[in-house]
Amino acid sequence: MKTNHKSLSAETYFTRGNEKSKSGDYIGAIADYNTAIHLKPDFARAYYKRGKAKSELGNFSAAKSDLEIAEKLVAQIGDAGLKVIIEQELRLSRITFNPGKCGGHPCIRDMRIRVTDVLGLLASGLSVKEILEEMPDLEAEDILACLQFAAHKMDTPVTTI
After folding, report:
1. What is the DSSP-derived secondary structure letter of residue 4?
2. What is the pLDDT of residues 81-93, one digit of tens each?
3. Could you tell me which residues come within 8 angstroms of residue 28 by beta carbon, excluding any fewer than 6 positions away?
4. pLDDT tens-digit profile of 105-123?
5. No. of H helices and E strands in the chain?
6. What is the dihedral sign for C-alpha 113, 117, 119, 122?
7. Which domains does the chain have, with CATH numbers?
8. For 93, how many CA atoms within 13 A lie in the half-sphere containing its CB?
9. Cβ–Cβ contacts within 10 Å for residue 36, how many?
């Protein structure tokens, strides 16, 4: 069986990118993911991981662009597991952080609607339909993003000093 060196090389750069990302070297990781994508332009996981690294650096629009490319590629190859992960990341990209709005608290799509406002309405018993009627600028996906954001934050270990 003939080995595809181009594909193996892309995998090697992808693996290096993952290692750099885990150690917090997001710039180095992005460089390796760039090379992996150059060698294998349909490498959905490399686009996904590059998007995650860009997000860690605060480059949210570029991260979203990579995630959208990964989503299209995943639809073509049929990787259901990665599809779900990418959909979740894209949903989370609706949550924005801007020091000049709402004191830097997480907001929805850079509007002055805080995640905690939506969660509070849900906790008080309002339905999604009622919240959307109350806040016409919101979309149902925004509410799901708030719930997903809260779930993600609750999964973060609490450390004490």
Report:
1. -
2. 888 888 888 888 8
3. 17, 20
4. 999 988 999 999 999 999 9
5. 8, 2
6. negative
7. 5-93 (1.25.40.10), 96-154 (1.10.10.10)
8. 22
9. 26
